[in-house]
Amino acid sequence: MNAFLAIRSTCSHRLTDSCTIRGGFFFLQVRGTRRTTSPPRWWIQPYHGYLRENLSPEGVSFLQKAGLELYMNKVAAVRTDQQSFPPKQWERGSVRCGLVCRKLGTLPQYMRDGTSVICTLLQVLDNHVVSYTDPETWYKNSYVGKKEGLRRLGRLTIGVDSADPQLFTAAYRGLFLKAGVLPKRKLASFAVTPNAAVAPGTRLYANHFLVGQYVDIWGHTIDHGFQGVMVRWGFKGMPKTHGVTKTHRRPGAIGTSGDACVKPGKKMPGHMGNEWRCIRGLQTELIKLFYENSLGITAISELSHSLVNVPFSMVLVILREFFRSKVAFSLKSVTYGVPVGVYPSRV
C-alpha cells in the first residue's frame, strides 16, 4: 500500500535585465517566459549520472545489495534517534496533507440502485513523510512560505517511489536519510496546519482518505508539443478556396490598428499541454485493494500511468446531490470526516 502527494510547481520569471552605463544602472523591462525546462537553481541535483560500464549482471546485483545494506545501516541508526510527533486534536478547518498516486485508467463502478459511475483508478504508491517545517521557519526561509505562513500553515514534504540509493547523489540521499527512509524519485510538499503534522518516516496509506470525501486532483496534462492556432486555440482558419493561398491554417492578423503592436496574451502558435492543472471537488467512491492499493475517484487528469497529486480538500464530505441541485453553498451542508489519527507501524 502506498500514498501520494501534491506539489505546486513554481516557475521563475525574469522580469528585468540590469545594465551598467558609466557606473549607473538602468532597468529594461523584458517579458518573461511562462514555462521553464530546468528546475529551480536551489534544488539539489538528484542524479549524479555515473555510468556502470563493463559490469556483469552479477556485479551489478552485488553493488546494489552492498549499497542498500550500507544505506540501511545508516537508516537504522537514524530511526533510533527519531521522536514521533504527539497526536493532536482534530479541529474544524484543519488542513491535512494529501497523497501522490499513479493513474491506472478508468473503470465503471455501479451504485446500489444500478447507476453506473465512471471512476478513475489511482494506485497509491509508497508515500513516506520526509520532513516537516513549522509555519514560523517556513515563513522566514521561503517565498511560498510567506504566503502560506500568513494562514499559519506549515510544509509537509512527502517522497514517493523508492529506488536504489546508488542512483542518487549524496546530497539528495541526505534529504531522506534524516527521515530514515529510502531515497525517492519524486518529492512533493503540502501546506498543512500544525495539528495535522505527521512525524518524518511515517508511511501513508490509502486509508488516509475515507469513501465519500471530496479531494482536489493536481496533475500534468498531455504534452502535445508545438501546435498551431487551430489545434491549440480552436481557431476556424482561413477559407479553403476563393483566392486563399497558403494561409488556410494561419491565425490571420495579430496586430492592432491603433497602437500598432501585438497585445500581451494574444493567442499564438506554441507549445500545447504539459501544464499543471487542478480538478477540484472529486468524490472518493471506492478504496479497495487490487494489486497494491488503489483509490477510485470519479475523474482525474488525462494522462494514464502518470503521477498525480491529490491534496486533502478543505471541502471534504459533501453529498452528491448537493452539486446537482442549484443551491447556494453553505457551511452547514458540509460534513467533515474523521481522519486517521494512528498510522500503522513503519514499513
From TrEMBL:
Listed PANTHER family: 50S RIBOSOMAL PROTEIN L3, LARGE RIBOSOMAL SUBUNIT PROTEIN UL3M
Pfam families documented for this protein: Ribosomal_L3
One Gene Ontology CC term in the entry: mitochondrial large ribosomal subunit
Family to which this protein belongs: Belongs to the universal ribosomal protein uL3 family.
UniProt KW keywords: Ribonucleoprotein, Ribosomal protein
InterPro entries: Ribosomal_L3_dom_3_arc_sf, Ribosomal_uL3, Ribosomal_uL3_bac/org-type, Transl_B-barrel_sf
Name used for this protein in its record: Large ribosomal subunit protein uL3m
